[in-house]
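Consider the following input, taken from an annotated entry for CHAT domain-containing protein (hydrothermal vent metagenome).
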Amino acid sequence: MKFVAQILLILFFISNFLSAFSLDEKNTAHNISSFEQYIFYLENNKIEEININSKILSNDFEKDFAEAVINYKQNKFENSYRLLFVHLKERPVFLKYYEYLVKTAGVLNNYNQIKDFVSQSKDEAEFLYLSGLIDYYETNYGSAEEKFSKVLQTKPNSVEVLIYLSNTQRRLGDYEKAAETLQTAKNMVSKNDPKTAEILVLKGSLYFLSDKYEKAEKVYKEGLQAAKESGNNIEIVKANMNLGMINDLSGNIRKARELFENAYNLSKKIDQKELVALVLSEWAVSFTYSNEPVEARKRYEESYSIFQSFNNRERMALTAVNIASLYLNIGNYRGALDYYNSALERSGENVRAKMLAFRGLGDVYTNLANYTKALKYYNDAKDLSRKIKDISTETEINIGMGVLFYNLGKPKKALDLILENIDEINENELPYLKAELDQKVGIIYTSTGNYSDAEKYLASSITLSDKFGDIYNSILSNTYLAYSYILNNNAKSGKKILKKQLKLCREYGLNQLAGVQLLMISETTNGNKRYNDLKEAAKFSLSAGDKSTLAEIYFSIGRYYEEQEQLGNAEEYFLKAISIIEDQLPLLKNNSEMQITFFANYHQMYISLADLYLRSGKIQRAFWILDRSRSRNTLYNLLGIKFSETNNIDLVNKFYDLNWKLLNNLGDTDSLEVRLQKIRNELTDKYPELTKQLNINSNTADFLQPDMFSASQYFISYFFDSDSIYVFKTSRKGLELVKLQTSVSDIENIISSISPYYNPEVVDKDIHFNKDLFSFNPDKAYELYMKILEPVLSDVPKNSELIFSLPNQLAAVPFEFLSTDKRNISGGSSLFDRKYLIEDYSITYSPSFSIWKELRSRASSQNKLALLAGDPDLNTGGNGYSSTRGVSENLDLYSRDIKVLPLKYSSEEIEDIEGYFSNDVVLLKDKATETNFKNNAQSASVIHLSTHSFLFNNYPVVIFAEDDENDGYLETGEIAKLKLNSDMVVLSSCKSGLGYIDKAEGILGMQKVFFDAGASSVVLSLWDVSDKHTVSLMKFFYEFLSDGQAKSEALRNAKIKFINKIDPNPYYWAAFTLSGNSNPIQFVNDSNIYIYLFGLIILLLL
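Applying the prediction step yields:
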């Protein structure tokens, strides 16, 4: 029966075909139907030879067009174009003519000739359609959509134009509109029309791209049936190919391969080479699911070559994405980058192609630990995926971003991203994606110690991967299941699984994963076996270019040598590990948050090396490596400011980029080495100090030199190591190490007793600590002094300047309030009779010695403006005034509807300070807006803000008046974008010196962001400060500053004057601390201005 049906179908087609040729040859209008059927026959069948019969084709146009189609199928593009272009002046009404004209012109890169012709012609519908087709094939889809829509105004029933319009809308990511346009076209054709099959297949693809696979499969089958009934071989090929893709995604690989092979054979049979390339490209994807990279690459490359011969930019872009993905999976990052960039270059306005290229670039840069670039590309891809509502691709992007944040040590953020769409991923429709999702969730749970959930998700991933033949993901999930067992004290089971998976990795050439597995195995072994596992792991990771794993391996080898008391070898491998990490840091220079998080993950490497140096008695090396471990992002940002000031930031960026390419084997090694050395020499000649800071192998003697200090300066850095405390004291006398006879836990207990404010058991963030609640305990302050400072200061003369670099445990403790005398002098109140450290020394703070060196070397700002802002108009929500300059932390900042009371004394403070400046901008009340602050900050040498501030999610926020441009909440991210050149910034507000504490960077708050933005010094507070008393302290501070005193000395004298004249309670005066450059402020005297003006007048009169 089937055979009979086929014979009947053929007879039906031939009957229609012959009847078309029997029409009057001279009447082109009446012959268009027959002519169209003949062209349809040529497109859907094999062309053995050119045989144009004048009785079939009625005029020169039809003969030339038929011959042009045959030439096109035979790759005789010049002949085809010549035959077509000669008829352009006739403005043929047969629209398929314009399609072939544009396609042949595209192959020959000859669009300009057509464009020139069209530009000189009238705005006829056919020429407008022609212009739209050129835009379409050049991937300028926005312009194409506009022109096709305009054509339809005069040719509303043109199915061809509607189909192209729908395809354009699809490529712009508007699947809904594309579907509506297709439906309009479908309503215009009969069931037996060959275009019905084309429309149905296109409709199925819209469902497919929208992740509606069941609907897509149903419509593809309808399209296949319609194609068979109309003899539309092209659509039979497309329908089979698309059904193959659906079978692949559902795990029915055998059926998929059968469909792909059928599609391939038929496309070859009918001589449709671009269709052959399309089938090959999707067939290759099928081989990636079964981990057959050789078969996949063979088909991809053949496909790409064919598309290239047709200059099909869109298909070249999509095929390049697939080839790049293949290279990515085998760790060929150079090849992956080349093809992803090629895809991006050719994608034009094709939203899907761009999205896939962006996602792929994100994956590559994540693997290469260039997280700033990776995040940028992921965000670009995610924006496009949301535009086209592609849930599966958005999920894949989220997986990539999740891996990125997981690598940065942010498992919660990673998990949130990966789980974002998990409920929308059906394992029956998308088993591979569901397997990958479960795998990544399991890996993250392993890292957080949630082993039961980790094992559940990883087992689910293994089941799905094995069921559908996804070998790579099966190996990866098994690897992390094994590691979960190891971490959960079941090393025997874990090791057994790892050995089996390692064998598979060797078999399939998965070097990166093999390196990870051997590193995991090394955690279950000891002695020489562990050493051998690590050395083999290093070989695999080196060959795969996996720098992050290699750093971990070198660190583990270093620890092995340390256990063996081979300290020289241990130092070598610790430095190798750190060098790899430091090579990655500059790549994150444009994203502080990422650089900070990345560095924190490897902070322990520095601590271990410091311990090694201390054991070896290498004190200077220990101080050097510990200082490198502190606030590296802040230092990079400060150096970035200096580089930018030299107008050579492009040279620095080129250095970083070339170094990264060399590290990751992304170019010709010899060529990269030569170029890199040339730039390195140029940088070293121009900026020797800066390049020393960036080089892990720089000489430590250059790092620390006695002439860096004045005679009265002492830099004191504390190192809390496990439960021991070391203090590095350096000055003109040299470097001295003091090991304190106390423990970290003892110090933490004393601090918690100084005030309830430091007691970790006081968890209510809504408490405002006034002087009574602060309840300062001078005896504990004295005890802390005796434990951590007295042994260090025994030989330091009084009135010296102390610069402290403190670990996180001491970051919120102002040393100024440490009591240096325990007993009462006169028998009165203990607070009145106490003597505090500030009375003996001026005190400054710095995140690290390197940062202090950088800030102290800065020249005074050329700006002479003082920007003074305070007492902003606020959304009060009630009557009265606030006694402190802070607000509740239990607020929803995102609502931007925070009720706070005004400050009664803030205006007084600003007016008092204003008297010390002649050139100032004063912002009070409704003028104290965030916008006015931002507009004036870049011109100010001194910035003083007297207002409310508070912590939101552990990050400080300063409150201004709002206006139409800004909401009045100045956050750290906004400050970091300012380009300041300020000698000093004072935040006379509550808790402005606090923030989130990172284990390597320290407090991430206003101090850091103002340094990053370009300030040389900052004065900030460590708790809720009194509105009334702060006015006096600030007045005293500026009084001494105006006398020419250094900032540290002026703040010291202000605090002493406050103690003697106002109140000795440290609650009032100790909160404000100075960080950074302590040089004096250059005030402009009125008298100098008058002398200048007088002189100017005299000159004018001459």
